[in-house]
Write the structure tokens for this entry.
Amino acid sequence: MGRRQELLTLEAAVAGAVEEGAARAVLVLGPPGVGKSRLRQELLSRLAARGERLQVWTARGVERAGDPGRAGGHWVRAAEIALEASDLAGAIERAQRALACGASGELRGAACLVLAEALSWTGDRNRAAVNAGEALDLLSAGTERWYSAARIVGHEGARSGQVDRLEAVARVVAATPPAAGADAARRRALARLAWPLSFHGRAEVARRLLDDVLASMDETPDPMVEAIVLGVKAHWAMLAGDPELHLDLAERAVLEFVRAGDSRGASFARTNLAFAQLGLGQHELAERQLREAIASAERLGNMTVVVHSRSNLALALLGQARLTEARAEAIAALEGCTAGRDMRVEGATRVYLATIEARLGDLASAQREALFAIERLATAPPLLAYARATLAGALLRQGRLVEARSTAARAMDEIARHGAEEGAETIELVWAETLDATGDRAAAAEAIGRARERLQVQAARIRSEALRRSFLEAVPVHARTMALAREWLG
């Protein structure tokens, strides 16, 4: 027989022995040097690489032997291995088998944790939140699994608009000392909680968490923590108006997630990288990256990445004036947001859709989507001003000047109080256009001058001449701002 067939025969014998709970003997004959020892080593290597399959075989065998309690432990380990391999459907099925076996206490908590993690990535956020909460109650505080459960509870709370709950969970995690061997898990949980806190306008809390993480780091490198920290810092670079640093840190975050072996994290980081590319006017490059991310995530059933990628893809297509395609992608993303109960992403996507509808000439739809966005982003102040400015733009184009001006003024007030995670240039542009439309050209000229200066400050930080030109000319809002400034100010 060929080597491959020999290995398959031996693997089948192992599977049968495990499932039946009975020993089997396989005799391998051959002269010295033919490769019997090498065959044995290859079999052991293949079995080690198929840890999940062994656990499944064992679980089924133990179940048939009438010991469901012991089988539950094997199902949990099989579920964890499946999750590590990004087999989300397999992880869910095996964790449910563990629960069906009557797993209780810590074992039930472990099964609920796998379910929470996998369901979160598939976009089933209600069930993810329920299972994460149960896992947190059952697992011992300060253990690796407990930190993971706490992180999911915080994340799911933020996605449904419960930002105070996210912050409360982060404080509990920070105050809970790690059990033996769980130091790295605590750092990872704190770093991952810092990310949504930063997105939801709690930057100071996020900074304190990262200070804790960095202060507790030992000399052993942890690519996972480094990847998460780079992702948060990339977001901060965007907030600080440094688009090239944003791009650089986002690229490094992707590489660190890959180095850490976290395929789901790397996929999500690539979506964030595409967003950084959009900020520099690299629409075609971002589109290619996002389509690849969508195809990969759909194969894995990773709907969280699919939704984020489709939302950003709508922007990439909008930047290329491919409006019908952009609208279709935004609507597809919204369907996933609604099913997945992610209010922040839904709100941002509705802002994009409102902009697309306005460009298509459907101002009533643009107004409707902007109002929906304002409602969804009530708990995300750094994005709320962007939604309100988008509404002001739709009102302005309908000739409803008084409403447009008051709405744009409110957006400017919000950006002054909370800053803007995204859309600051749009907010300033709409304010200037509204002032001009209501007859205050002097104030409009002053506003567009400030907007141009802001863009010039950001552009000056970009070392690459090609990227600098793309930033000023290929981003539609930037190009419109610069054109109006030349027209009004010379």
